[in-house]
């Protein structure tokens, strides 16, 4: 993928990346072809992406996110951030993840799923709220209810970076907040995404967490970012939808 980035053909580049991943196909075998430890440095995850390309085996949603990060690393001016969904269906809990993309005032996403409606989203959404609501509606069509959305920090474009991806920067629970509160949370993240670097956002979060821990009982009911980090093989496949 050549640089500099031309806004007129950027959506096409995203589509070509998505088309390549779709041609690898979703992994229905139940096997785990690639081991992904989410807390590893970015450079190590990029090594996994290279292996995925070399082996050309079917992949699941987490592998697709790692591959998307690798394939978009050379596209400057683009913010990429993980978006993780937790949904409920007939009393069971299911997890799914895509790579959110923000460029030139529009949001979209890259990914892979059992359902076409739960993966790639064109770069056409004016707000993050619009993008997330589109996913929530798609989940509803699959008879799933989204009860949690985790937004991660923008991922570095440096494929040799030793920093780990922060997968959980903001947690939104659509069923527990009003539409106004949901919109405000999305707007807050979007403003930070446009105006701050990932390092600044991470520092701001650490400052807030430290302030909460200093309050009496401040860390009760809270968890660290690493508490939700699991191996890709540890989450259930989204039955009939993921």
List the helices and strands and how they pair.
Blueprint: H1 10-24, H2 42-55, H3 61-72, E1 79-89, E2 92-103, E3 106-110, E4 121-125, H4 128-141, E5 145-151, E6 170-172, H5 179-195, H6 198-214
Antiparallel strand pairs: 1-2, 1-5, 2-3, 3-4, 5-6
Helix pairs in contact: 1-3, 2-3
How would you describe what is shown here?
The protein is of the alpha+beta class. It is built from 6 helices and 6 strands, in the order αααββββαββαα. It has helices spanning 10-24, 42-55, 61-72, 128-141, 179-195, 198-214, and strands at residues 79-89, 92-103, 106-110, 121-125, 145-151, 170-172. The chain has a 6-stranded antiparallel beta sheet, sandwiched between helices. Strand 1 (79-89) and strand 2 (92-103) form a beta hairpin. Mean pLDDT is 84; it is low at 218-237.
